[in-house]
Predict the structure.
Amino acid sequence: MRYAVISKGLSVEEIRAEAMKAGATAITEAKLLSQVFCEMSENQASILDQVRGLSVKPIKSIKPEAIMVPERGIAGPQQELSDDIQNVFSNIRYLFLPPLTGAGLTVAVVDSGIRKTHDSLKHKVVYEENFSSSPTVADIYGHGTQVAFIIAGGEIDSEKMGVSPGASLMSMKVISDEGSATEEQVVAAIEKVCELAEEARLSLLDRTDPMWPNVINLSLGAEDDGDEDSPMRAACRVASQQYGLDIVAAAGNFGPDLTTVTTPGTEPEVITVGAIETASYIEIWEKSSRGPTKLGNMKPDFVLWGVGIAGASNNNDIDYITKSGTSFATPMLSGLTGLLWESGRRAYGENWLFRWTEARQLAPYYCLKPEDAPINQDHDYGYGLPAVGTMVSRIGTPPTTAGMGDIITPMMLMMMIMNMMKVMV
């Protein structure tokens, strides 16, 4: 059986040495994340787990957290809903002249691969690598291409389709052609993204360079086992805290039952996204997973639209399909990063940074919920639906205070957001 060996104090070399003492074989390392993976018997794993400073975890299987409803082409009421949502983001982009595009954002899509030759995704993928058990990096299963489209889909009949059509994408294939992956494969992909971010930093690239990843999108998950040191959760913490990456993950599609949010969405350091149904009013999608987590943490963090969402087909370069699930609400938040960040850079200079992990602290001031929902974070809506139009507009308006500089602090952002009107554009 395959296990992950994790330590908060030992080096990877020390972890490997202890694993070898226990009789482990087929050892691989995630050096940046301080994890080792290996083959062991249950008895060997039990012995190794007793070593001070080590935690031994069986490797779990994961799947894309989507209830997918594909169609050939797009038609009917699902198209109308998808059009409404695209219009929301289109209106936001045109709050500025020249319009916002999300340029400067790079999202690492840890998924089933991306069909980069699709008409809407040409020239978007700046890096790709295959960590799955399948032979090629191509998206055969059909999930990552749709996720990528929502983040950065380009022009179709002169209309920009994705949330941030100027963003770049990194395709980290972990989901096989049959639709499954393991925690080890996801951790390997996260480590590679961290490595690319570190290489970009050491090369003195700008954070807006396409080869500097800013966000990791994880539209996948495994059942919450209440383990804060599970391999994926541990990897996400390191990626966020040490490499400055926002980790955006799907809540899962196992609602309306409570305590159904999937890992790594259960990790407090991760930005977890649930799904709502319509563009005209806020109503939680029945299948969107609910918190709290088994450890009692309140999740999700935000909700966005996840029903009848348009996406590029992975089968050819011209078709489009509709699907539903928190998998497709998640990349909306990832893509929204680009619009918020770009609007802030225009107002405060190129050194201005935006991270959801910081903005989340102020979420009650800029999120929308039904009138009967709690004001603070709850286990259905989290903090709610970001008031994206007013948020982008307000961040993109420079403060009148002289000498504020080109880096806005969280307190300054709080003052700005508290003055926002809670209405959607």
Q: What stands out?
A: Confidence is low (pLDDT under 50) at residues 67-81, 401-425. Residues 2-59 form a domain with the Alpha-Beta Plaits fold (CATH 3.30.70).
